[in-house]
Automatic annotation (TrEMBL):
Its EC number is 1.1.1.100. It is an enzyme of class 1 (oxidoreductase). This is 3-oxoacyl-[acyl-carrier protein] reductase. InterPro entries: KR_dom, NAD(P)-bd_dom_sf, Sc_DH/Rdtase_CS, SDR_fam. It comes from Shinella fusca. Keywords: Oxidoreductase. Gene3D superfamilies: NAD(P)-binding Rossmann-like Domain. GO terms for molecular function: 3-oxoacyl-[acyl-carrier-protein] reductase (NADPH) activity.
Amino acid sequence: MFHPSLFKGANVVVTGAGRGIGLEIARQFLDCGAHVLLHGGRAAAGPLPDFLENAVAEARAHVVYADFLEEGGIGALLQRVDSLFPHVDVLINNAGTMVGRFPAADLTDEQYDTVVRLNQTSVVEVTRGLLRSLRRAPHAAIVNTVSISALTGGSPGSAIYSATKAFVSTYSKGLARELAPAGIRVNCVSPGTITTDFHARYSSAEKLEATRKTIPLQRLGTAEDCAPAYLFLASNTLSGYITGQVLEVNGGQLIC
Ligand SMILES: NC(=O)c1ccc[n+]([C@@H]2O[C@H](COP(=O)([O-])OP(=O)(O)OC[C@H]3O[C@@H](n4cnc5c(N)ncnc54)[C@H](OP(=O)(O)O)[C@@H]3O)[C@@H](O)[C@H]2O)c1
C-alpha cells in the first residue's frame, strides 16, 4: 500500500501486536522495510502467521510476550527493546482492552485498577521507558491507540475504559508539545467499531449489527482500515508537520 521502503531500516515497536489491529500495523510496517519488535500480548496464542514467521527468520521481526498487569512485565519489554535497538524510530502504544463491562454501581476496586493500569498507566510507563531511545532517532514518532469512546463515553459498562482512552488522548497532546523541541511527534489513532477479537468478547452480534446501521459508510471497520493511519502518522515524510492530533478511523460513526 505504502512504498516498500518507506520505513527502510527504521526500528519500530508495536505493543499489543499478537492479533487484531496491532498485528496488522506490524505487518504493514514490515511490508515497508522496518525492523519491528512486536509485543505479542501476554503469551503466544498459537503458531505465528506465515508472514511473521518469515520476518523472524530474516531477523526483521522479533516477538516478545509480557503481561502489562504483572509486576515486571513492562520492564521485561523495555529491556528487550534496549538490547535489540540502538534507538527507536517509532513507538506504537496499542496494547489494551475493555477487560469487561462493569456497571458503575458494581465496579470493584480491582476492576477499576485493572482497566486503568492496562489502558492508561502502561502507556505512560512504556513511553517513559523508551524516551531516551526515541530521542536518539533523527525523526521519532509516537502513535497511541485511543478510541471513539474517548469522545462519546462509550456504551454501558465501559465508562472507565473510555475514560482511560480520553486520558491517553490528552496525555498525547501534552507530550506532543513537550517533545516537539526534541523532534519527536506524538499523535493518536482513534478506531471506531473494528471487527477484532475485542468485540467478539464484549459486544453481541445484535449490538454490532445495530451499530453498523448507524455508520454512514454502512459497515464495521477492520484492522486493515486502521493500520495505514498509524503508518501515515509515524512517517516523517508523510506527516512531518502533524503532531498532537487524533485521527478518527470510524466510517463516519462520529462526525464533529
Ligand atoms: N476493536 C475495536 O473496535 C477498538 C475500538 C477502539 C479502540 N480499540 C483499541 O485498539 C487496541 C487494539 O485492540 P484490538 O481490537 O486489536 O483488540 P485485541 O485483538 O483484543 O488485541 C488487544 C491486544 O492487547 C493485548 N493485551 C491485552 N491485555 C494485555 C495485558 N494484560 N498485557 C499485555 N498485553 C495485553 C492483547 O494481548 P493478548 O493476546 O494477551 O490478549 C492483544 O495483543 C486496544 O487498545 C483497544 O482498546 C479497539
